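Hi L., both proteins are below.
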Amino acid sequence: MFRALFASLLIASSAATGVSVDSLPWKERARRGVTPSPEASLRAHVDDWPEEPPSPTNVDRARFEHAIREVCQIKPKAASTLAGHILESTREFGVDPFLVGALAHRMTRCQPDKEDLGGRGLTLLPKEFFHGHLRDGAYRYHVAQRGALVERLLPMPRFRFGPAKLFRQEENVYFTAALLRVLEEQHETLDEIFEQEPHRHYVSHWIWGDKVRGARAEDRVLTDRRRLLEHYGSHRGPRPVRKHGLELGPPLEGSPRVVSSFPGADRDQGLRRHRGIDIESVRGEPVLAIAAGVVTFSGVDYPGRGTARTMPKAKANAVPSRRMGKGGRFVCIRHDVDGPDDYVSCSMHLDRIEVEIGQRVALGERIGTVGRTGMRVSSPHLHLEVIRNGRRIDGSKLLEDFLVRHPPKYVKKRKRPLVASAAAR
């Protein structure tokens, strides 16, 4: 029904594959304020990812509200309002509501008053992506068809576009959904005309513009989309796997997740070595138990060696980060093992702890939330250590079914004895 709204006008042009960028009938769209990260591009490649799960055909509003509330971490009334705006506009333009929700979370953590990365409002939508394209209440764009460029019109009658309106949640969602509709129709043409970095999804053009300069931004948006689908209940995530007598699951929602640092990497300008793995994540994400077991440590790492202290979660959550050592708030679990080995996992830098020492936890149970406690420079992430029979191992190998991992060749495998501390007891 929606596609009937499109009007098409054939214009004289060569085939898309032969069109020069200089001769295009539109000005190249490019987002200001974003640059690709060569370091991040080494962490994950386009062919690392499985096929993305589909969205449900008929979206239940109550379940979608729940998913928005859980991922955005906003109050029920705010989640209801945002979910309503997303569902209304995505129905109008025929696009994926879970993708719009993922953009809202990834770009601003669902805050409508932000301005950054060359964009404004809930999804940091660039006003320049509309300049020269909006005329007479319709967005004009071109696609390749039968050896020529065809102009198409997307009617946008409900709101009149203006940069200030991008700060209004309902209007921002409306214009975001409209632009996604355009890019879904146009992305194959853009990929033919412009030199592109390899990418998987048309949402990369929403992030970069006509020329995609990296795929890591789309990876993170699609991770948030998987999280929304998991909370909605239409996607279960990866199944548990059995290894070394352990039944294992992912440490974070929306798997697979990307490992950003491995054991042995330099820390503090080479004064020490990294003891675990870092997994890309954002503050407030739930941290999950990778296997069933008993909490052996729940508390805070203070400055110095052997100064980690167990304490009730309420007390631990009240300790200011500035008083903490490098581990911050953390939780360790001794896992149930069918075999002779002993396995302990420790999740560190937590924003909040949600379990008590001695508590039994199930596979996949929430034990805390991602944070950056104990850190001085890095952005929030999950630091995970896995200890087998008293020695730290590379946890990314144990959990490779749930992670995207590309260990750098220069990091040598190191086995370091575990320092006796509360974490090992």
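That was the first. Here is the second:
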Amino acid sequence: MATGTVPASFTGLKGRDSSIGFAKSMDFVRVCDLKRFKSGRTRISVIRNSNPGSDIAELKPASEGSPLLVPRQKYCESIHKTVRRKTRTVLVGNVAIGSEHPIRIQTMTTTDTKDVAATVEQVFTPLVEKCKKYGRAMRIGTNHGSLSDRIMSYYGDSPRGMVESAFEFARICQKLDYHNFLFSMKASNPVIMVQAYRLLVAEMYVQGWDYPLHLGVTEAGEGEDGRMKSAIGIGTLLQDGLGDTIRVSLTEAPEEEIDPCRRLANLGKRAADIQQGVAPFEEKHRHYFDFQRRSGQLPMQKEGEEVDYRGVLHRDGSVLMSVSLNQLKTPELLYKSLAAKLVVGMPFKDLATVDSILLRQLPPVDDNDSRLALKRLIDVSMGVITPLSEQLTKPLPNAMVLVNLKELSTGAYKLLPEGTRLVVSVRGDEPYEVLDILKGIDATMLLHDLPFSEDKVSRVHAARRLFEYLGDNSLNFPVIHHIQFPSGIHRDDLVIAAGTNVGALLVDGLGDGLLLEAPDKDFDFLRNTSFNLLQGCRMRNTKTEYVSCPSCGRTLFDLQEISAQIREKTSHLPGVSIAIMGCIVNGPGEMADADFGYVGGAPGKIDLYVGKTVVRRAIEMEHATDALIQLIKDHGRWVDPPVEE
């Protein structure tokens, strides 16, 4: 029987007298006796302390035989720096998985597994021979969308249910003295995936278990979307030292998964090898196991202001872009690059329009055309941010001014006209007495601006420290994560680094947007990457969300071809999620978050789903895409594609 402490935040349980009262805080209490009752349609375990003097916890869930999992504080080795979690070694053939070994990478065969010759050719005969010689290892994996009815009745389709489901199988393995296994928590939603792994490891710390972890965001999709989702989920956990083998699950040829796997593994290895981190600090405000977004105060209109600043940030997450003087020479091209709508050459904001721009150099005061282009952006509530030195020498009316902590401490910003909007750049690792100047400043937003080339300080841990400081001092400035990438960085490295360093914060609700810069990268690529990152973190939806499996021997149609066809006709539906699954074995379960499903039901036949419910069966493949569109229309989720001007 498991023993331990129970936090007072476990949702849905409450008691009186000697029972435990579950509140919002993460305070901990000791319990020793468990009693159950049934309330309404939900079975709830109420823990009652029949011996207030004891500090031993004897925990049981509503189902007999397995301990109830409860959240604990510790889920990684260090919250101050990247320290890889210690695990035992599991042998898969002669490949060792665990903390004493490099992070392993995986892919999957796409052949029909009944075709022995083709499968053996793809996975290499020596691997099979060594598996026979050394025995087999097991991976205990839980799928967010395929939990049993029994688990669902107690926990719902939650991260906690995923962990309890996996632990049931692990306990059987332990009873049989079998330990050559590792864990996997499968979810297509990176936020759910991160929470599930953290809960899993937190419980393993309590149980004294040290089994390795396989990391992956299941059904991540294809292209940059798939790589971004994987970077958010896998990269976040690697930054906390969690993970021993990884897979980037792409709807592409299996060999295409290897490259992003290597890039992620190298990122995690580098962080752990050089012990990136910050000085220790007490963490009280971040929620490890459930998503609660920090509420940064969005700009409010002030009396006497000539323009509307309320649109310079977006409530669901903001995208900022760096603009050059050259781009101002062709205003209409600039407006289109910012994804603004044009009406008679005038820009207007839309759902996927950039919210604010950073202009490191202002045009000369006599460059009327460039200044008119900026004025038109400001007039539609797009923020224009420029450095203090530029604004003092070539002032632009209604611009927001970028200052650093030194310029605040010296009072240089006081040379600006009264009421000028300030944007403050901070690293996050400054001494607290330096950060204290923020207490007396009315800033529109902060830029978290740790240089990308910084070796010893982790951007993720520095930002966590900054948010703790802001929380401790009741400072609710919006925070924009700013990364300046060097010239020559590979596009995939940029996507993975952004997903890891920014995604690791946004999945914890820490941050209000991002600004990505790379001097030699295409403007549209940086803008799309930024919006993809926000959508991958379940913040701002600007296009259709796709969940698509990576293909395997069971796939009943060409996934890449069909995915491309469906995307071409449906990509303009923000807020709608569509699952494209090769077969019914894992498809209905792994598309848990999707609104609509396109699933191979038999050779040449497609089944259509609404949520997890099949609504049409055995549609001829040539008619299935049109039937899917009609299904979306029938449920009131369709809009016609916008007409290009």
